[in-house]
Amino acid sequence: MPVPKLEHLEWDTPMYRLAVEQLDGIAERIGLDENIWCRLRAPQRAHVVSFPFRRDDYSTVETVYGYRVQHLTTMGPTKGGIRYDCGVNLGEVTALAIWMSWKCAIMGLPFGGAKGGVRIDPNQLTRTELQRITRRYTSEIIDVIGPDRDIPAPDLGTDMQVMAWIMDTYSQQRGHAVPGVVTGKPVEIGGSLGREEATGRGVITCALEACRHLGIQFADSRVIIQGYGNVGATAAHIAVELGAQVVGISDFSTGIYDSRGLDLKRVDEWIAEHRFLEGYSEGDEVSNPELLTMPCDILIPAAIQNQIHERNADALHCKILVEGANGPTSMEADRILADRGVTVIPDILANAGGVTVSYFEWVQAAQQFMWTEDEVNQRLISLMQRAYRDVLEVAEREHVDLRTAALMRAVIRIREAKRRRGIFP
User: Fold this and answer.
1) For residue 205, what is the domain's CATH number?
2) Quick one: 78 and 148 in the same domain?
3) I need a labelling partner for 195 at 20 to 30 A (CA). Which of 58, 335, 363, 402 fits?
4) Per-residue model confidence (pLDDT) at position 23
5) In this predicted structure, what is the pLDDT of residue 281?
6) Final residue of a domain: which of 304, 319, 350?
7) Is residue 202 domain-shared with residue 341, that is, in the same domain?
8) Range of the domain at 87
9) CB-based burial, 317-330: b 16+ in 10 Å, e otherwise
10) Beta bridge partners of residue 363, listed in sequence order
11) Which of the following is catalytic: 79, 115, 185, 418?
């Protein structure tokens, strides 16, 4: 059966094409069966919903579109975040679900990849409007999620409060509390300690491992982080705690660069009062694209996809690039950076800390037993270190870059799982 052309698929978007190009790039290298190759290019299930949404004035009703994609059910229940953003579409969530499958396989988690989203701008909604949308979206996908079926988590534009509303809506329909239906929820209703910081902690763990391998002193390094949200801010603070200098950060409003190092406490105080970085007086104000090209040792894109491409890859000055965001680097940029000797730690490894601690939270819900924050952090660091070293071993053995090695490790594990399960009927 020939591999289908992308333009014939409902979810064909630039982000989906990137995910498929990455898969295609290693499929022949590992001798992937055409049947499995074809199936891994597409979601196993894709749910598209539309529903009415009433504004707070109770006279304005709008139609909202939502998605939930389950890429792979071979490994166990599916796992993946829900994002609220005005750019959400079927192709985006399909690509993210594919990457989540690779992350879970790399980390050895008993999950397949999933992703969901609602096409809204959460910054333009009141808290009550956000709650109504969340509860209605949950009711629309309630038959395809569950602790043994598909477990959502926070992503862009969502947080632990949104997860709490999803859990409550699901539990109301089931007639009893079901804390395992989502992860990343508040600790008071079954969330895990350490979950909110998990992705950022995993990013820095990978950066540390890369520094050890390359003989670079992390404590003396200069770090730039594009995207000072949950992932970026956590990574920044942990980096400083370990002795590095954070010389540049940004959010969607602006970027700040100071070669002497930024005072993150003052940055956090400013953001707490003004919400965004714009107007912060210390350091030089730079744009998001400019920030990526400022001098540093470690660059962490932790904002959105497609930030590093063939037009700016030559201008980067970092030694190590750690992808805190999903899909920030294009295939063309990968090749340029590899030729320049820049070590790229791919998103499917670097930002897998979030799904790893989500797995811990899911296990704690099933066991009805809570772990301490130190236990969670140490388990996360241990698994991230093991995953990095496993990927590095593949890269050195096969003479490939870390992204190719990570994809090879993930797809080979999934291929073997599919082979073991066979085909029904």
Assistant:
1) 3.40.50.720
2) yes
3) 402
4) 95
5) 85
6) 350
7) yes
8) 42-177
9) ebbbbbbbbbbbbb
10) none
11) 115
Domain identity same for 344 and 246: yes
Whether residue 240 is contained in a domain is answered as yes
Q: For residues 58 and 169, state if they share a domain.
A: yes
- Nearest residue to 324 via CA among 412, 183, 200: 200
Task: Give the pLDDT score at 282.
Answer: 87
The secondary element (H helix, E strand) that includes residue 311 is none
CATH, residue 139: 3.40.50.10860
* Nearest CA-CA partner of 156 in 77, 84, 70: 84
Task: Assess contact for 113 and 101: CB atoms under 8 A.
Answer: yes
Query: Could you give the angle at which helices 90-107 and 373-398 cross, rounded to 10 degrees?
Result: 90
The tokens for 102 are: 């690779």
Determine contact, residues 407/25, Cβ cutoff 8 Å. Answer: yes
The position carrying tokens 């862009």 is 156
Looking at 324, 350, 376, the residue that finishes a domain is 350
Residue 136 and residue 202 in one domain: no
**79 is annotated as an active-site residue:** no
Token code pair at residue 310: 């063939």
The answer to the question of residue 188 being in a domain is no
What is the side-by-side order of every strand in the sheet holding 245-250? 284-286, 255-257, 245-250, 222-226, 298-301, 320-322, 343-345
Residues 245 and 156 in one domain: no
At residue 196, what are phi and psi to the nearest 5 degrees?
-65, -30
Asked if 369 contacts 312 with a C-beta cutoff of 8 angstroms, the reply is no
Q: Is residue 88 part of a domain?
A: yes
Q: How many domains are there within the chain? A: 2
Give which of 173, 187, 162, 107 is closest to 140, Cα–Cα: 173
Residue 190's pLDDT is 94
For the chain, the 3-state helix, strand and coil shares in percent, each to the nearest 5, are 50, 15, 35
In-domain check, residue 357: no
Q: What is the DSSP letter of 329?
A: B
Residue 326 carries which DSSP code? S
Residues 98 and 239 in one domain: no
Nearest to 380 by CA among 218, 158, 208: 208
Q: Walk along the chain (425 residues) in steps of 10 and give the mean pLDDT of each run.
A: 62 90 92 92 95 92 96 96 95 96 97 97 94 97 97 94 98 96 96 94 97 94 94 96 95 90 94 90 89 95 89 94 93 94 96 96 93 96 97 96 96 95 88
> Is 359 within 8 Å of 109 (Cβ atoms)?
yes
Asked if residue 244 and residue 308 are part of one domain, the reply reads yes
